[in-house]
Design goal:
The protein is mainly α. The protein is built from eight helices and four strands. The longest helix has 14 residues.
């Protein structure tokens, strides 16, 4: 299995593992097309039904209608390894729900709630302070790209 995911960082492999485990609720070690779509959506991707069907067809070598974690990694590692500013800007848009062009504490609170992360206002404010170069209490796309590139998450 190591040859399947040689190009992935530990964080990227962990992201795939978490997405897989979330949708493999019965712990069977395999997921079907519906679960594959849910996993991809949990990773911030927006696959169409036809794309998911095509991906399943390519990955499901034994024609069982399911794929295991190794097949899942093989299938999605290219999508996870992308590191362009375009991907980071897409992630920014997920935070910037009000389309103001900035991320503020309210945006972070909404995402933390969706992800079921318990964070204090102080922690959220600190995240904004770290990324905000203007001191206005909000993070621009440029600041977000800088922080994400520095963090190695993208």
């Amino acid at each position: 299995m190591s040859s399947v995911n040689q190009g992935l960082t530990a964080a990227q492999r962990q992201q795939l593992r978490e997405a897989f485990d979330v949708v493999d609720q019965d712990g069977s070690g395999v997921i079907d097309a519906r679960e594959l779509k849910m996993a991809m959506e949990a990773m911030g991707l927006s696959p169409s039904d036809s794309e998911v069907s095509d991906l399943m067809r390519r990955a499901d070598k034994d024609k069982t209608g399911t794929i295991d974690f190794a097949e899942f990694v093989s299938l999605l590692e290219d999508k996870v390894q992308t590191s362009g500013a375009e991907d980071i800007e897409e992630a920014f848009r997920l935070f910037d729900e009000d389309q103001s062009g900035f991320i503020d504490t309210a945006n972070l609170r909404r995402v933390a709630t969706i992800l079921d992360e318990e964070m204090t206002d102080e922690e959220l404010d600190e995240m904004i302070r770290v990324a905000d170069r203007t001191g206005k209490g909000q993070v621009s796309v440029k600041d977000f790209v800088r922080v994400m590139n520095k963090s190695g998450l993208f």
